[in-house]
Design a protein that fits this description.
This protein has 6 helices and no strands. By secondary structure, it is mainly alpha-helical. It has one domain. Helix 1 packs parallel to helix 3. The relative contact order is 0.25.
């Protein structure tokens, strides 16, 4: 079974990218937390700048993996595992960032915790997707891809990132 036409890797890569980069609109607030003292920069300014750099790097790595769409199902696992590793690295690096003070710090902590929770769920969903591809079960592939997509687009990590001014992590 060749994968080039209708390969699940681009769809799964997009779903993993949504997990890594926020996506979704959970709490609907979306407004940036204002800086203390009335400045123009959100209170999460340094956190946001560092998070943006991490998320942008992860997006670039995900695009590079997407470009290498495998021809055979046995090659799919490696590509998806690379995507999972990119997500795990971004989540770990974001967790290491110093949190801002005040409300922005609380939002940053919620963002990092939610992203870590989602990251922990991704490997099992990747395995489920690969197993479905290897079984040539297109319905199961679609269902697994939808579950990954839902993991990336539900729950509002994108909203949390936007509130901090970490726009690269929100898209």
């Amino acid at each position: 079974m060749r994968l080039r036409a209708g390969s699940p890797l681009p769809a799964v890569a997009l779903a993993v990218a949504l997990v890594a980069c926020g996506g979704g609109d959970g709490d609907g607030d979306g407004g940036e937390i204002p800086a203390r003292g009335g400045g123009d920069t959100p209170a999460g300014g340094q956190f946001a700048a560092q998070a943006n750099a991490i998320c942008l790097g992860a997006k670039e790595q995900i695009v590079a993996v997407q470009r290498r769409t495998p021809d055979e199902p046995e090659d799919l696992r490696g590509g998806l595992e690379q995507l999972g590793a990119v997500l795990q690295d971004a989540s770990d690096r974001l967790a290491e960032l110093e949190r801002p003070d005040g409300d922005a710090g609380e939002v940053a902590e919620r963002y990092v915790e939610e992203l870590a929770r989602r990251t922990e769920q991704t490997p099992k969903l990747i395995d489920t997707t690969v197993d479905a591809v290897e079984a040539q079960d297109t319905g199961a592939v679609e269902q697994a891809t939808q579950r990954l997509d839902a993991l990336g687009t539900r729950g509002g990590t994108g909203d949390l990132a936007r509130r901090l001014g970490a726009t690269e992590c929100a898209e």
